[in-house]
């Protein structure tokens, strides 16, 4: 009887502690790790969300860029962090594709994190240096097939969104190009603008400004519907390349074991941020928009990551591209 009483008391104490943790949290600044270089599309999304969430939570969220190894270094840091809600990860589609791309990961993308919620789906664009000869996507495919040994395709490194989209593009046209990996989207875009490389497939958050400014040439957006900020840009489906369909989703995570009340508080703050008119307007300027409120939840993100791992595994396996 005494044992049962003590056990009940212990359970009650745990419940009270968890409630107190949620009520008090956060009492100090929070670090949001972005596993890519500053200035890239994921970094832009993170800073917009972090600023709005900071207001809701009453504590500053500091964005820290921990780039390298296709985003796995930053993700590993968060996976191993104390599960107290003070270290978060904002990662893109690479959270799912890393499960196949990397033979040895120091964490399990599906099980070593506490999902907080989806943030946004970012369309991709197929772009080229401004003086590339092809006028539209049909001409681009024809030109690339005839000049495969001369055309270069840039990406932001193995596992980056631009790398994944590039693989889909090459598979769709049945042609392998010379790929040029960079250490981040910024350097890749700089060389595309400068004409040192020919093509790239990258997120609208990184390409919209360059397209509107005439610094690069755009051929298509990789989503079923057009992007409002680029109304004259056709979809890959309408332009004759329906197999290239990809949007780069972003999700917010805490380390596995973070108390559920803390995760719920973070999720509610995220949902509030995604309703923020400033965030919505800025996202719109970048060619994207926040996900629907019902998708910015722990369960939806957790299920989505597992589904995306299954979706991308055959694509990556067929391409035979792996990283150590």
TrEMBL record:
Protein name: Tripartite tricarboxylate transporter substrate binding protein BugD
The UniProt record lists the keyword Metal-binding: no
Signal peptide range in chain numbering: 1-22
Pfam families assigned: TctC (PF03401)
UniProt keyword annotations, A-Z: Signal
Family under the similarity heading: Belongs to the UPF0065 (bug) family.
Top-level taxonomic group: Bacteria
Organism ancestry: Bacteria, Pseudomonadati, Pseudomonadota, Alphaproteobacteria, Rhodospirillales
InterPro entries: BUG, Bug_dom1
PANTHER family: BLR1237 PROTEIN (PTHR42928:SF5), TRICARBOXYLATE-BINDING PROTEIN (PTHR42928)
């Amino acid at each position: 009887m005494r044992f049962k009483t003590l056990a009940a008391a212990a359970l009650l104490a745990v419940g009270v502690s968890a409630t107190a943790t949620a009520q008090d949290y956060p009492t100090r600044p929070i670090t949001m790790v972005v596993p890519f270089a500053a200035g890239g599309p994921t970094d832009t999304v993170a800073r917009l969300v972090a600023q709005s969430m900071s207001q809701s939570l009453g504590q500053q969220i500091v964005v820290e860029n921990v780039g390298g190894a296709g985003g796995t270094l930053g993700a590993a840091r968060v996976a191993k962090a104390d599960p107290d809600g003070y270290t978060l990860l904002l990662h893109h589609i690479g959270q799912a594709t890393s499960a196949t791309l990397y033979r040895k990961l120091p964490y399990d993308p599906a099980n070593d994190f506490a999902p907080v919620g989806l943030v946004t789906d970012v369309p991709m664009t197929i772009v080229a240096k401004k003086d590339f000869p092809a006028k539209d996507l049909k001409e681009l495919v024809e030109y690339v097939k005839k000049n495969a040994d001369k055309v270069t395709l840039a990406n932001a490194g193995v596992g980056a969104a631009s790398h994944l989209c590039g693989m889909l593009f090459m598979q769709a046209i049945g042609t392998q190009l010379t790929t040029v990996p960079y250490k981040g989207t910024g350097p890749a875009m700089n060389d595309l603008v400068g004409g040192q490389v020919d093509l790239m497939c990258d997120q609208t958050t990184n390409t919209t400004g360059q397209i509107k400014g005439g610094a690069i040439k755009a051929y298509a957006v990789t989503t079923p519907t057009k992007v409002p900020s680029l109304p004259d840009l056709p979809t890959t489906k309408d332009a004759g390349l329906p197999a290239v369909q990809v949007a780069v989703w972003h999700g917010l995570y805490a380390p596995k074991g973070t108390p559920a009340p803390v995760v719920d508080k973070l999720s509610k703050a995220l949902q509030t941020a995604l309703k923020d008119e400033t965030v919505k307007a800025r996202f719109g300027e970048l060619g994207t928009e926040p996900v629907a409120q019902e998708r910015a939840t722990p369960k939806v993100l957790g299920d989505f990551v597992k589904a995306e791992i299954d979706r991308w595994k055959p694509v990556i396996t067929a391409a035979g591209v792996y990283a150590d």
